[in-house]
């Protein structure tokens, strides 16, 4: 230790020197040596930097270096992340994965090989030919299935997801599209015509009822009122008493 030891240190140091930096750290901090050129300087950190792992002792907490192939580690013999070109497996960094495993270049780990899995086949479709279900005797029917698990790089590839086979059906005539369309158009016109006829009849009935009502009202207005019959006694001539 350099003789110039100071107790009033900065940066989490408990003791330090001008030449060596930190010599000891405050509680719960980790002591680590950082290389600056040909010189090593002691520093105190709250957590160990990349490439180091922390160990706690009663008198001091230290950061120790991981293995050369480890980027980060939990202990010296247990890596948590490997450097470029190595694959992590059970805390170790390997250049090649063991048998039964494959290298995952995304996570840089050795993982299990995953094979493709497909669902059960669907029922066979109706027999068709050129998209139609009539007008033929021999056609084709198909069935399909879905991929439920895609394979990894070294896994077994996926099988076909559709199958087709020939089929025979009883021939039936197809309804002509033009004729069918014409029939539908005629039915529509007939329906509209019937509706129009009913509407006209209802309108005529309402008009006739309204005309009759108006006629009755006009008759009541133009008919002369009956005059009251004169009193017979008033119309009698006076009898001459002389005669």
Automatic annotation (TrEMBL):
Activator of the canonical Wnt signaling pathway by acting as a ligand for LGR4-6 receptors, which acts as a key regulator of angiogenesis. Upon binding to LGR4-6 (LGR4, LGR5 or LGR6), LGR4-6 associate with phosphorylated LRP6 and frizzled receptors that are activated by extracellular Wnt receptors, triggering the canonical Wnt signaling pathway to increase expression of target genes. Also regulates the canonical Wnt/beta-catenin-dependent pathway and non-canonical Wnt signaling by acting as an inhibitor of ZNRF3, an important regulator of the Wnt signaling pathway. Residues 11-110 form the R-spondin Fu-CRD domain. The keyword Signal applies. It comes from the Eukaryota. Residues 175-219 have a biased composition (Basic and acidic residues). One of its GO terms (biological process) is positive regulation of non-canonical Wnt signaling pathway. One of its GO terms (cellular component) is extracellular region. The lineage of its organism: Eukaryota, Metazoa, Chordata, Craniata, Vertebrata. Belongs to the R-spondin family. Keywords: Disulfide bond, Glycoprotein, Heparin-binding, Repeat, Secreted, Sensory transduction, Signal, Wnt signaling pathway. It comes from Pelecanoides urinatrix. Gene3D superfamilies: Hormone Receptor, Insulin-like Growth Factor Receptor 1, Chain A, domain 2, Thrombospondin type-1 (TSP1) repeat. Interacts with the extracellular domain of FZD8 and LRP6. It however does not form a ternary complex with FZD8 and LRP6. Interacts with WNT1. Binds heparin. Interacts with LGR4, LGR5 and LGR6. Residues 116-170 form the Spondin-like TSP1 domain. One of its GO terms (molecular function) is heparin binding. This is R-spondin-3. It is found in: Secreted. InterPro entries: Furin_repeat, Growth_fac_rcpt_cys_sf, R-spondin, Rspo_Fu-CRD_dom, TSP1_rpt, TSP1_rpt_sf, TSP1_spondin_dom. The keyword Heme does not apply. Residues 169-243 are annotated as: Disordered.
């Amino acid at each position: 230790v350099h003789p110039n030891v100071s107790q009033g240190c900065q940066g989490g140091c408990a003791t330090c020197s001008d030449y060596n930096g930190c010599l000891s750290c405050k509680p719960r901090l980790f002591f680590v040596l950082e290389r600056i050129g040909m010189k090593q300087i002691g520093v105190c950190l709250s957590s160990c930097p990349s490439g180091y792992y922390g160990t706690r002792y009663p008198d001091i907490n230290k950061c120790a270096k991981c293995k050369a192939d480890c980027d980060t580690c939990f202990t010296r013999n247990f890596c948590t992340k490997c450097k470029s070109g190595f694959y992590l497996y059970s805390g170790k960094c390997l250049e090649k994965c063991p048998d039964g495993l494959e290298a995952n270049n995304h996570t840089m780990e050795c993982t299990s090989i995953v094979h493709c899995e497909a669902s059960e086949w669907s029922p066979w479709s109706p027999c068709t030919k050129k998209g139609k279900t009539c007008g033929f005797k021999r056609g084709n029917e198909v069935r399909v299935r879905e991929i439920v698990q895609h394979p990894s790089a070294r896994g077994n590839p996926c099988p076909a997801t559709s199958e087709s086979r020939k089929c025979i059906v009883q021939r039936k005539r197809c309804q002509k599209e033009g004729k069918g369309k014409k029939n539908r158009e005629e039915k529509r016109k007939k329906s509209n015509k019937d509706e129009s006829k009913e509407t006209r009849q209802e309108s005529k009935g309402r008009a006739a009822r309204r005309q009759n009502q108006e006629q009755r009202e006009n008759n009541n207005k133009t008919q002369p009122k009956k005059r009251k019959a004169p009193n017979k006694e008033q119309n009698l001539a006076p009898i001459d008493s002389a005669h």
